[in-house]
Amino acid sequence: MDFYLNLINTIGIHTMLGLSAYLLLQTGQLSLAQAGFFAVGSYTAAILTVIFQWNIIPSVLVAMLVSGFLAFLVGFPALRVKGLMLVVATIAFSEFVRMFFYNLKWRVTRNGEEIGPDGTMGFAEIRYFSDNGWSNFEVTLFLWSFVILIMGVIWWSDQSRTGAVLRAVGEDELAASSVGINLTVVKVSAMTAGGFIAGISGGLYAHQVTSLDHHSFTVLLGTFAIAYPILGGLSNVFGTLVAVIFIQGLLVEGLRFLGDWRMILFGLLIVLAMNFKPLGLFDKQTMDLIKKAIRV
Amino acid sequence: MLRTENITSFYGEIQALNGLTLEARKGEITCLLGPNGAGKTTTMFTIAGILKSRTGSIFLEDEELTRESAQTIVRKGIALVPENRLIFPQMSVEENLNAGAFTRSSNDPSIENDIFKMYQRFPPLEGRRNQLAGTLSGGEQQMLAIARALMAKPKILLMDEPSLGLAPLVVKEIFSIIRQLNEEGVTILLVEQNARMALKVANMVYLLEKGKVSFSGSPEEIHQDEVIKRAYLGAEIK
After folding, report:
1. Are B156 and B78 in contact (CB under 8 A)?
2. Helix H segments across chain A?
């Protein structure tokens, strides 16, 4: 049972991570910085609960604000670069963040035990849930309430003019500015919102896995973050959820017996998706089919 | 109605406009002609606020817009139909029309009514309202681009080469739309390569060369000037 609860938690965290890239992708910004914002969120929240002994909810909220503010700052230079150059710049940012935590040493002694981030050794004393007697099931409920809230907000955005504005910028920036859209505001807001979501998701991740290690925040994580919404499609949030279930549940966990060979399947999947469903599994066409099927 | 005075625009260090002064009068069609690289599109971008002029000023009905952002300029009543149409290809026709009204409040009840009016004006669009705009023909895309700009309820419409890449019959249709819009009172600033068609509809013509106005006058005056006539229309035109 715990195995499945853990898997459900992982799916929830990765869904939030994917959704943090979703809004950015809608505006046409391909960012690999999401792993960086995620790392900032996880270290911030963990430092607050472990060293400052805060409650988890304010810790996650502060993690969200810190990541969001950082994303806001990254958003401005990111306006000047597009496409591949943005990918390179955001990888650089993400690695910078990772190296920062690789070197971060902040040990304090409490009740005769040393706790806190320990540079290369990682940050291993994040025991908020067990110290406060949360059951695994409660952790899952807590985590998924954030997932549902975030999905709800983005779902609303997609139905409203906000989503249309984001998509307009993603389709053609010149056309978007000629219908009176302020590109700077839209692109920086999308980046900031992405930072908020990645921060929440990182903060929850830190407490779910109980120990952090800079190896978890490599470019591979950033790639996963954009792979989910790309595979799932940018027309609705459930695409991202399904893509996470498919990749984390089926490919990573379900095919574990294949060992590292399953990474080849992952590559194959991306190639197939790009050929047969270039706009994602849940593009407009598929959604129309589903809607029709429901009506019949 | 719309005046530019001595504007100069740059792409990085490359100067594209070199002290350009022109005026588009209310209710008229003003046309900019000129060879490639003369600065026609740059003029449009500068008026629309997508590029900023380093000198001079731009006025719409005595209100200065020189330093305003692109979205403020759309709100003030200048709508651009960009070159190559630039509709949103992955959005439906209706979503494109809605995008044209982004500067209006989203719960403005008249938006729906205006979309209905656009379908009446451009009947081919109505049958394709849920179709992705990228799948429309060139002429239909141009109609959509014009309709999208009209959704912002502009005082003046800037049209950048609406005939580009269209079949001759479709070009005729687009020009009859331009003329019809003008008869309904829309002020138009038109950039064209198709000088013959443009001269037929224009009230006032500016010839651009190297970022400057080299000639301005009515189409009749152009017909009287042998040198210009030869350069822009070919000698044998009467």
Report:
1. yes
2. 2-26, 34-50, 56-78, 83-103, 128-131, 136-159, 161-171, 173-178, 183-209, 219-232, 237-244, 262-276, 284-295
Contact B159, B89 (CB under 8 A): no
B147 touching A (Cβ < 8 Å) = no
For every residue of B165-226, which 3-state class applies, written as one string? CCCHHHHHHHHHHHHHHHHCCCEEEEECCCHHHHHHHCCEEEEEECCEEEEEECHHHHHHCH
> Are B114 and B226 in the same domain?
no
Cβ-based contacts under 8 A for chains A and B? 67
Q: What is the pTM of this model?
A: 0.89
Q: What is the CATH number of the domain that holds B216?
A: 3.40.50.300
The verdict on B60 touching A (C-beta cutoff 8 Å) is no
ipTM over 0.90: no
Query: Which residue range forms the structural domain that includes residue B141?
Result: 90-152
Residue A147: closest CA among A47, A231, A244: A244
pLDDT tens digit sequence for A193-221: 999 999 999 999 999 999 999 999 999 99
